[in-house]
Write a structure and sequence with these properties.
This protein has 2 domains: about 10-65; about 75-135, no CATH class. The chain is about 60% helix and about 0% strand. It has 6 helices and no strands. It starts with 11 loop residues before the first helix and ends in a 27-residue tail after the last helix. The chain is mainly α.
Length: about 160
């Protein structure tokens, strides 16, 4: 008895090749469907179902190609995540204090203080968006200056004119 092993090749070239093969199959099935509509004035339900499946496959592949590549988290990120996990679950601040000391010794502004992990930051932001209608409409713009000046048009002035 032999053991079957399947490997998943997620490289960009393999993904593009699979997308093109699926698209060619979609074009061929659609051409068959159009020829059938012209000859019988109705489409076969099996061809319609095949087109729906191919359409879903193309959508899946396009979403998969738009994802960022999977990469191993940096050791520093893993350490931060572990420290945050210990703090949130047990209230243990020792890991955060050690990271805080490391952050103070670096010259990078982005690592100063207790920063929430990106996953937690996105979760908080999404919950705020759901809770506040204004946050759903507003656009957040990050600036490095202390003030933000936006040019505003005051519109045109209008007056009533007398009839002549």
């Amino acid at each position: 008895m032999s053991k079957e092993v399947k490997t998943v090749n997620t490289s960009a070239k393999a993904l593009a090749a699979e997308m093109m093969a699926t698209f060619e199959a979609y074009k061929q099935a659609n051409d068959e469907r159009l020829a059938e509509i012209e000859s019988k004035s109705s489409a076969d339900t099996l061809l319609d179902e095949k087109l729906r499946k191919l359409d879903k496959r193309i959508d899946y592949l396009s979403l998969k190609s738009a994802r960022p590549p999977e990469s191993e988290a940096a050791p520093e990120t893993r350490e931060q995540n572990a420290a945050w996990s210990r703090y949130l679950r047990n209230g243990d601040e020792s890991g955060l204090a050690r990271l805080d000391t490391k952050a103070f010794s670096s010259v990078s502004d982005s690592q100063g203080g207790y920063l929430a992990p990106p996953e937690l930051d996105r979760l908080i932001e999404s919950r705020l968006m759901q809770a506040s209608p204004m946050r759903q409409i507003a656009t957040v713009r990050q600036t490095s200056a202390g003030t933000y000046r936006k040019p505003v048009s005051l519109g045109v002035a209008a007056d009533w004119a007398t009839e002549t």
